[in-house]
Design goal:
407 residues; alpha/beta; Rossmann fold; formyl-coa transferase, domain 3; 6-stranded parallel β-sheet; 3-stranded antiparallel β-sheet; 17 helices
């Protein structure tokens, strides 16, 4: 079966993570994605190493692992858009595309005639998605936005990390660039919504995605806690502001996560822990009561959990339906039988690395499954192919453009 989006062509002018993540999701779903990169250097993340991918002899290929995470299934075309001939190439490709992704500074593409107003006048069906740190409007619009900075401005670091009054307390960023990744996902949803709407109107539209908007939106229940109470929530480490016990506990040989989501699960937890009377104590019998008295309950449970190893607690709690789990490192993640059975590690052939391991897509469609057509491309790997097949350029013309540094 052809992929769900096999009828769509995407021109991806984005780099680093948020825009490329959107492009990779669309590629996995079957869209043809053409990635435009700077001649000689390409996407910034091509140099974000080590680590580098290795060839069959174990030598570094200079293909950065970071770049590989977000560019599967794309074709790489190198074009210098600062040159008129390069602008013509991108413009002609845009006129043959359904979707354009870009993450230049606000107004940055207008000087090249590659902005939405110019391209949509030539191609009214074009869906044009701009990804920036702060959006196309507002006082911060001209500023560059990086995930780490956005996590701070958008409030995420104010609720991430250990409590200030405990050792190691203080603001902490998340271990992956979540505002980039979530913006890429919101961009994907927005693009597909625009595709669906175009079926009715016949028209494309401009999508304005901002990392800061996404970061604020994804604070979700924490924002609602603030909006409802007027009190900004603080950092709670591995605890939960609204549910108790919902945190990590130190067992005799390591740590385990326990997530008690309702009162019946708490009764079962107390039975396994050998303290059934705690479940009937009015201070702990309901979740609101447990939240109020967490400073009494949590130390009590800490003493209990410290008496047995992780395996004991996992086996006993799982047996009675109390959610729990270990804290795995990534080696343990990819060794996990559930992760393996879900196909979350894949391998694809690569021109220089031979075969590269990649993270699989979490999207599971029954009739039009995701397509792993190709590994992330080498820089300019498909320039000749795309220019000749899509734009009708002769081999001589492509050679002349290369000689002039245009491609």
């Amino acid at each position: 079966m052809a992929g769900a989006l096999s009828h769509l062509r995407v021109l991806d002018l984005s780099r680093v993570l948020a825009g490329p993540w959107c492009g990779q999701v669309l590629a996995d779903l079957g869209a043809e994605v053409i990635k435009i990169e700077r001649p000689g250097t390409g996407d910034d993340t091509r140099t974000w190493g080590p680590p580098w991918m290795k060839d069959a002899d174990g030598e570094n290929t200079r293909e950065a692992a970071y770049f590989m995470c977000a560019n599967r299934g794309k074709r790489s075309v190198t074009v210098d858009i600062a040159k008129p001939e390069g602008q013509e190439i991108v413009r002609r490709l845009a006129l043959q595309s359904d979707i354009l992704l870009e993450n230049y500074k606000v107004g940055g593409l207008a000087q090249y005639g590659l902005d939405y107003a110019t391209l949509s006048a030539l191609h009214p069906r074009l869906i044009y998605c701009s990804v920036t740190g702060f959006g196309q409007t507002g006082p911060y619009a001209p500023r560059a936005g990086y995930d780490f900075i956005i996590q701070g401005i958008g409030g995420l670091m104010s609720i991430t990390g250990e409590r200030d009054d405990l050792p190691g307390g203080g603001p902490q960023k998340v271990g992956v660039a979540v505002s980039d990744l979530m913006t890429g996902m919101y961009a994907t949803v927005s693009v597909l919504a625009a595709v669906a709407e175009r079926e009715k109107s016949g028209l494309g539209q401009h999508i304005d995605m901002a990392l800061l908007d996404t970061q604020v939106a994804m604070t979700a229940n924490m924002s609602m806690n603030f909006l409802a109470s007027g009190k900004p929530p603080g950092r709670a480490g591995n605890a939960h502001p609204n549910i108790v016990p919902y945190q990590t506990f130190a067992a005799s040989d390591g740590h385990i996560i326990v997530g008690v989501g309702n009162d019946s699960q708490f009764v079962k937890l107390c039975a396994v822990a050998g303290c059934p009377e705690v479940a009937t104590d009015p201070r702990f019998s309901t979740n609101p009561a447990r939240v109020k008295h967490r400073d009494v309950l949590v130390p009590l449970l800490e003493r209990v959990f410290a008496q047995q190893p992780m395996a004991f607690w996992s086996e006993q709690l799982e047996a009675v339906g109390v959610p729990c789990g270990p804290i795995n490192n990534l080696q343990q993640v990819y060794d996990d039988p559930q992760v393996r059975s879900r196909g979350m590690r894949i391998e694809l052939p690569h021109p220089t690395a031979g075969t590269v391991p990649l993270v699989g897509s979490p999207i599971k469609l029954s009739r039009t499954p995701v397509e792993y057509r190709s590994a992330p491309p080498t820089l300019g790997e498909h320039t000749d192919e795309v220019l000749m097949a899509l734009l009708g350029y002769s081999a001589e013309r492509v050679a002349a453009l290369k000689a002039g540094g245009v491609v």
